[in-house]
Specification:
Elements (H helix, E strand, L loop, with lengths): L1 E3 L4 H9 L5 E2 L14 H17 L7 E15 L2 E7 L5 H11 L3 E12 L5 E12 L4 H9 L20 E5 L2 H5 L3 H10 L8 H9 L6 H6 L1
Parallel strand pairs: 1-2, 1-3
Antiparallel strand pairs: 3-4, 3-5, 5-6, 6-7
Length: 222
């Protein structure tokens, strides 16, 4: 039994692309960032906590998939590098601040995946990072998007796949990572638990998002 520890409609959609049968067992945890916590440590901690929380309620034959995604703005100022983790905005005003901060610049999307077998606690984690360049959207476009309410449940206040806003100019790396679940990384992890693909995942991704995966073969060979 494969369980997704998330109610995210985006992660549900992505998991279906792999042809895997799964059920939902969402896990609610405290998602606040710890003082001085690096982005990679943050998403790995949250993904692991979600998997562990779901495992407490899961059947013994379950394989649990949990993930956490965050957007990171990086600034180099006075010889120092500052990493700002942008989670889900608390309101429309904060969403506007995030989108103006990211506009026309490169930022980084981090997703950590945790896979756990409930019966014996076997546990794997992986992290994917994608470089994302935002386009120079206008203030009017930004406000129209905020008015839809879509940014309020998205890390960094945007959805890359939003049909009306199209906020991203360029992606360097895994596209589905930016959506919320890097499928090639997940496929590699599930294989180690004896769960294989039932379909051509790269083709499914390309058909859905019109994006090719540059690293699929490399990941599955590891």
């Amino acid at each position: 039994m494969l369980l997704l520890a998330s109610n995210s409609p985006r992660r549900k959609q992505l998991l279906k692309l792999g042809g895997w049968d799964f059920d939902i067992l969402a896990a609610e945890i405290d998602e606040r960032v710890l003082d001085g916590e690096p982005p990679a440590d943050y998403v790995r901690r949250l993904a692991g906590s979600k998997a562990q929380a779901a495992a407490l309620r899961a059947p013994q034959d379950a394989i649990i998939v949990a993930a956490d995604t965050t957007v990171v703005d990086v600034r180099h100022e006075q010889g120092e590098t500052r990493e700002l983790i942008l989670g889900k905005p608390g309101d429309a005003a904060e969403a506007g601040q995030m989108l103006r901060l990211l506009r026309g610049r490169v930022h980084y999307v981090y997703t950590a995946i945790a896979v756990m077998r409930a019966s014996d606690g076997s546990f794997l984690q992986d992290t994917c990072v994608t470089d994302v360049t935002m386009r120079q959207y206008s203030d009017e476009e930004l406000q129209t998007y905020i008015d839809t309410g879509d940014p309020l449940d998205k890390a960094g206040a945007y959805a890359i796949q939003h049909a009306g806003f199209h906020p991203v100019a360029k992606v360097n790396g895994c596209y589905t990572n930016v959506v919320g679940l890097p499928l090639c990384h997940l496929a590699r992890m599930l294989r180690k638990f004896g769960i294989r693909l039932d379909r051509d995942l790269p083709q499914a991704c390309m058909d859905t998002f019109n994006e090719e995966c540059p690293i699929f073969e490399q990941l599955l060979e590891e």
